[in-house]
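User: Reviewer 2 asked us to show a designed sequence for the structure in our supplementary figure. I'm pasting the structure tokens here. Could you produce the per-position amino acids so we can include them in the response letter?
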């Protein structure tokens, strides 16, 4: 069980990140959601925390109950009709506080009132801007780690030859 849960107000983040907001306006809201989930899946893999993304569906006439999609350590929630993401997140903080004592709960939202509410419930708060900075920092770390672990490329022809041929050529070079 992971010791940190990141609860993300999905639409709040989409509207706060310039690239996602532009993607939503130029392509579609669904495309922006998919991009956000891709970013958060990568982030989850790098940081190791559990991530729950909550999207408002309070004005969707077709969604009567909350819908939860499990993507491994990333969980996506579409709230029920007439339920805001804020209300869902607040209730989830209360439930997780009881069920997972000692677990760090961090709520990502730019809504100041929601930040105060979750702080009062015992969770930490993070703005969408802070999440963006942390996502970018993890990307830099992951690239550096990948570069360090990449095998050294040898461009010499001799390095491409089978070992016995390399050894025979070395003997010839040394005059043996």
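Assistant: Here is a per-position design you can include in the supplement:
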């Amino acid at each position: 069980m992971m010791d940190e849960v990141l609860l993300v107000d999905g639409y709040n983040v989409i509207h706060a990140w310039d690239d996602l907001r532009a993607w939503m306006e130029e392509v579609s809201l669904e495309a922006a959601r998919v991009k956000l989930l891709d970013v958060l899946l990568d982030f989850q893999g790098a940081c190791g925390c559990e991530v729950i993304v909550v999207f408002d569906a309070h004005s969707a006439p077709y969604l009567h109950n909350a819908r939860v999609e499990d993507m491994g350590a990333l969980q996506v929630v579409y709230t029920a009709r007439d339920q805001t993401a804020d209300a869902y997140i607040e209730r989830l903080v209360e439930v997780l506080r009881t069920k997972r004592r000692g677990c760090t709960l961090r709520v990502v939202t730019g809504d100041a009132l929601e930040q105060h509410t979750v702080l009062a419930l015992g969770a930490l708060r993070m703005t969408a801007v802070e999440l963006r900075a942390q996502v970018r920092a993890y990307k830099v770390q992951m690239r550096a780690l990948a570069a360090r672990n990449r095998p050294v490329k040898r461009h010499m022809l001799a390095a491409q030859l089978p070992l016995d041929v390399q050894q025979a050529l070395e003997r010839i070079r040394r005059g043996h």
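For the response letter, you might also mention the following. The radius of gyration is 24 Å. Strands lie at 4-9, 50-55, 67-71, 74-78, 104-108, 124-126.
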